[in-house]
Amino acid sequence: MVQLRRYLVAGLLVWLPLGATFFVIRLLVRWMDNSLLLVPQAYRPENLLGFAIPGLGVVLTLIILLFTGLVAANLFGRKLVSLWERVLARIPLVRSVYSAVKQLVETMLSDGGQSFRKVLLVEFPRRGLWTLAFQTGTDQGEAQKKTGRDVINVYIPTTPNPTGGYFVLVPREDVQELDMSVDDGLKMLLSMGAVVPDHPQMDAPESA
């Protein structure tokens, strides 16, 4: 029975990661295949060839992104985007959502941005309990003035689903910065602590 259990565990270690990876990739491909809806009905692959081609939407999505970036990078494109943003700014609900998402994307994709670049250790939800968190910013704002302290913008994700979580302003002195990468931090969160990244052991103190 011990040998049988070991074989079963070994099989699970092979197939579960493969299955999860396949599921996520298939979900992304299906989501991007929806871009084919932009193509007129008569020119879609299933009508021209008689069958659908999985993943063709990924190619179309990349082409659309590259073409949009090419247009937006020149002078005419920037003026067009500016005009479009002024139109959106006149719509009450849309302007709030659009501006918030745009600032978030610009911050995360910026080379000099600080969002999700550091893994932190903070006491949450009370003193004495520690959890992993990600630094999202250190910009000075009204919160800094009202609290009178140097606070850091921190995102504390839930586990095993890191897309949900809490936004907390934590004093800098109450934050411990970890050496692990963001990828390692996500692995630890997704595994609920079962996967702990390797860390070089600290040198033992010299004996007196």
Automatic annotation (TrEMBL):
Report TM segments.
Answer: 7-29, 49-76
Transport: present as a keyword of the record?
A: no
The positions making up the signal sequence are none
Q: Spell out the InterPro entries in the cross-references.
A: COV1-like (IPR007462)
Which key words are in the record? Membrane, Transmembrane, Transmembrane helix
Superkingdom per UniProt? Bacteria
Tell me the PANTHER family matching this sequence: COV-LIKE PROTEIN 1, PROTEIN LIKE COV 2
What is this protein identified as?
Answer: DUF502 domain-containing protein
Q: Which organism does this sequence originate in?
A: endosymbiont of Escarpia spicata
